[in-house]
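Thread: "does anyone have the structure for this chain?"

Original post by V.I.:
We have the sequence but no experimental structure in hand. Need at least a predicted one for the grant figures.
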Amino acid sequence: MDPYLVSVLSNIGMISFIALSAYLLLLTGEISFGQQAYFAISAYGSGIATAMWGWPFWAGLLWGATLAGLAATLVAIPTLRLRGLYFSIATLAFAEMVRLVFEIFTYQVEIDGELVGPDGSDGFRDIRYIYDSNVTAFEYMLVIYGLLALVLIGFFVLERARLGSVFRMIGEDPMLTEMQGLNATAYKVLAAAMAGVIAGIGGGLYAHLTTYVEPKIFNVMLGVHSLAYGLIGGLGTALGPLLGVGIDIGFLESIRAISGYRMIVFGGLVAVLLIIRPRGILDEATVHWLRRRWRRWIHAQD
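Reply from O.Q.:
Generated one for you, tokens below.
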């Protein structure tokens, strides 16, 4: 497969994790501009585990995702008592705090005569576990999409389970949810923790593919984009955020004629869709219609 295509597909796969992370919070009615914080925490955490502590890749990835999930839980407990815009601002403030901490965070050890580890604003280099293990770019892309498939399966199970119904109920009317004897805040904290882990998986994968991370990568625009992907693709299914990522990275980025105006086009697309389709392209009504058509087609084949 063409190396450039592998690179683009790998990027789409990794960004899909943070898009799904923001989507999960959107289901509960919360808008987060700070999911890039958990992406960053895992990128650094998993990189430290493999490049500096000598852990295997899977252990490092699990470590990074766990750190991201714990951080998301600790942030969610106080902030999810806030409502609407206040919660969004709190998540943005936390993400910027994390980015600034990494700007001054220095932790290095000497390996084979060279210093390895985070070096403040100069970033964290030589996260080379994948390449030192002779894993090709194509093989790593398969790893990315294998993990993405597992996360999507988890979402499909969630959407058919009671927990998924509770999340959507909270998103539609938290007061009604409370009246039914359910602790809306506790469920939102659970959703935030799950979202942190999902973003963390993407962050760990990103660090090992690029072999280098620096604080400025995890800026507010990454958080805004992760949120916009769900709003574009639709909130009716977990495939919605993936559609949003595909439109932005796979389609808009590939059109050379608008490459210099991609952000303008992307912003305009978000604005238009919010007006004509507030719940995105694959909203609940569209997903229900597609499922009904699919069942009819299946029955027609019998």
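V.I.: this helps a lot. The mean pLDDT is 90.
O.Q.: and The two ends are 38 Å apart (CA to CA).
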